[in-house]
């Protein structure tokens, strides 16, 4: 019993530390000067496109003194926090590591929007690995990296670290809503059949985002 209690306390400490690290990262980004150099454009319509340098920080957040919050924080139990954070980090890294900050945040938004949508699993890992881990194998892989062999390449370097930091921030609810509640996206060089059934919201980098109509 004592051993289990100590393990639980350790998990709580790890979760709290992760949150503190994420908040410190936010503070450094906002006060480190990169915000002043950000080049981001607000969404103007269904075909709006974000473009600019990779140092875009929290989309068009350039002047506000308070960090924008687009959704409630997603804070699983301490036991599940690291697992959920890893799944979101993987999605950002494998799906959008070559994209600017706004493009990576867009992918994170899609994952979290699905978590909040009753049509999808209620956990980050459940959403990200829906298909590969689904015993009924309905709908195939929702995120291509979970089935195309990408996971065989071990993540590394600054891109992985940045993905982890962004994932932690997104789970805390920070970041402007760039995709207008999107639950889907695809690369601009493909034309999936399902896109015609959804409402296009925005293009960010090489990804085009969609939400359910209505």
Q: What descriptors fit this protein?
A:
single chain, disordered N terminus, 214 residues, alpha+beta, Arc Repressor Mutant, subunit A, four-stranded mixed β-sheet
Describe the overall structure.
This protein has 214 residues and is an alpha+beta fold. The protein has one domain: Cell wall hydrolase SleB, domain 1 (Arc Repressor Mutant, subunit A, Orthogonal Bundle). The chain is 39% helix and 8% strand. The chain has a 4-stranded mixed sheet with strand order 1-3-4-2, covered by helices on one side. It starts with a helix and ends with a strand.
Indicate the low-confidence ranges by residue numbers.
Answer: 1-6, 23-67
CATH class: Mainly Alpha
Beta-strand share of residues: 5-15%
| Overall domain count | 1
The backbone outline, from C-alpha atoms, is: globular
Helical percentage: 25-40%
Topology (SSEs and partners):
Blueprint: H1 2-31, E1 49-50, H2 78-96, H3 101-115, H4 124-128, H5 157-171, E2 184-187, E3 199-204, E4 207-211
Parallel strand pairs: 1-3
Antiparallel strand pairs: 2-4, 3-4
Helix pairs in contact: 1-2, 1-5, 2-3, 2-5, 3-5
Quick gist of this model?
The chain is α+β, with helices and mostly antiparallel strands and 214 residues long. It is built from 5 helices and 4 strands.
């Amino acid at each position: 019993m004592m051993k289990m209690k100590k393990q639980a306390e350790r998990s709580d400490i790890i979760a709290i530390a992760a949150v503190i690290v994420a908040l410190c990262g936010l503070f450094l980004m906002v006060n480190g000067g990169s915000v002043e150099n950000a080049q981001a454009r607000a969404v103007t319509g269904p075909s709006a496109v974000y473009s600019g340098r990779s140092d875009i920080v929290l989309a068009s957040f350039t002047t506000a003194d308070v960090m924008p919050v687009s959704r409630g924080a997603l804070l699983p139990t301490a036991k599940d926090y690291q697992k959920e954070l890893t799944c979101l980090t993987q999605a950002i890294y494998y799906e959008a590591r070559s994209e600017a900050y706004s493009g990576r945040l867009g992918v994170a938004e899609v994952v979290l929007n699905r978590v909040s949508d009753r049509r999808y699993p209620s956990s980050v890992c459940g959403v990200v690995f829906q298909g590969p881990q689904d015993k009924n194998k309905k709908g195939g892989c929702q995120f291509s990296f979970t089935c195309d062999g990408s996971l065989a390449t071990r993540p590394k370097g600054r891109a992985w670290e940045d993905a982890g930091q962004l994932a932690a921030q997104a789970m805390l609810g920070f970041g402007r809503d760039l995709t207008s509640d999107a639950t889907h996206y695809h690369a601009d060089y493909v034309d999936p059949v399902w896109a015609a059934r959804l409402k296009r919201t925005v293009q960010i980098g090489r990804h085009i985002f969609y939400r359910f109509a209505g």
